[in-house]
Amino acid sequence: MEKDIKFFTNGKRIDGRAIDELRNIKIEVGVFKRADGSSYIEWGGNKIYCAVYGPREAYPRFLQKSDRAILKCRYNMASFAVEERKRPGPSRRGVEIGKVTQGALEPALLLENFPKCMVEVNIEVIQADAGTRCAGITAASVALANAGIPMKELVPACAAGKVEDKIVLDLCKEEDNYGQADLPLALLPRRNEFSLLQMDGDLTEEQLEEALDLGRKGCLQVYEIQKEALKKKYITEDVLNE
Amino acid sequence: MEFLVKDRSIVTPGMAIAKGPFRYEYGVDKFGDTIISSVLGIVYIENDGVKVVPLEGKYMPKKGDDVIGTVVSINPLSWDLDINAPYFANLHVQDALRYVKDTSNLERIFKVGDVIYANVRDVGESSDIVLQSKERPYGKMKWGRVVKIHATRVPRVIGKKGSMIKLLKQMTKCEITVGQNGNIWIKGERQMEDIVERAILKIDKEAHIPGLTDRIKKILETELSR
User: What range(s) does the K Homology domain occupy (chain B) (predicted)?
Assistant: First the structure.
């Protein structure tokens, strides 16, 4: 199977992108009425909703921290999100992604302002097309800002990878499934630190360095889109034209 | 000292606002020698300080605030009130009424679901909120209805020196009480209540766009002439 796919034609990738080009990203803010903050992201073929609740009293009680709030992240994929029906409900993969999402977002939040509270992040994948954890983190970060939770910075995320011994940005479905490596990253842009770094496949040391550099550039592009989306919600043209 | 954004522009968390030594109030954080925003909000730059007024977020109680809450549960000698804060607020019998004959059945005084106008007496170190409702304007709100808005937009409902609230009261002849936590209690004629509710929700939606009082006045005029 792997041999059948030709990843590059005339220097372009399968979906016509350049090596360091992201897929189309569209973020909407405040899509749910009942949630304190929410967002919707379309990243290539990924369609993800994110809802944030809180800060509110932490339950169960024993999880409460007397000096700060706790962050709970839940990642769930709809049964129709992938080609073959996914068995609904929590899975090993979902729990893992929830955990790494929490780890990626927590260093950016100022949770010490809300002792004994919890902040809940729900990520719901409606359609999956490679790189859902990065898209999920990106959307969650925007939803957290929309919920008014104080934070040091937004967290953009983006994947880098290796296909046919070339380092590429933001893998598409085929590259993810049949490529050589996948490296999801989440960046704290101001501090220039990564809060998420996973690797699937193998990279040499030089390739890893190269992928990190490329991933960082990708994250910074995503960061701009996040900021734009948040601002756009409040600059409503129809009101000004009235 | 140098500014990196314009006064009254919208900033997102992590955006650099100013460089250099600066007095800062709330909604901002320091990173090295730059001052960055920590919330999604609007920057206000004054001669010697910067602050970011958040556009979203829950109400954080301060001592002395007047709030409107609903009773959610009854304890042996106190009530728990939902005031849109991260925590429930506590109203003790001693602080509820000036004179209580019989504390055996608190349900006779305030039931679950009652709307109460109260004053924040104290906010503890671990953020427990203590209320009091002894004196005159405080107490149970009878009849009327409660409109919920974002706590961050309450100043807009009041307006500059109370201009907005005065406008609403004068034009609709409703009684309006505004809680700092974003709960607004309205009492008046049914249709007037409807009009006020719509106006308040519009204020909530368009709080950050200038020229609000004029717009609301226009809407009220057209609605009332119907």
Answer: 141-205
